[in-house]
Structure prediction request, 98 residues.
Amino acid sequence: MVDYKFNEENTIEQIKRYVDKTYEKHYASGKYQATDMIIDAGHGDGFCMGNIIKYAMRYGKKPDPVTGDYKNQGDLLKIIHYAIIAIHLWVEDKTNAR
Prediction:
């Protein structure tokens, strides 16, 4: 077992809970999410990178709706989620290029 220095195992579990919630919310109300359509149109990489930049720049400027804290964890979780989607697209690109 790995002895994590920065509590990574708990953070990874928190990321999973956050991603799971996005599938329960309005983003998944239909068969496709808006992200699916953006990816299908060939704009997935730019969309993910744009959102990563957006939430990184917003971090510390907009209060968390629950806690009121300005350095809100939600923005960081969104950055990670878009990075996960970008990694998926990268892997898919590499797999399809073979």
User: Anything to note?
Assistant: The mean pLDDT is 90. The first helix runs from residue 8 to 24. The chain has four helices and no strands. The radius of gyration is 15 Å.
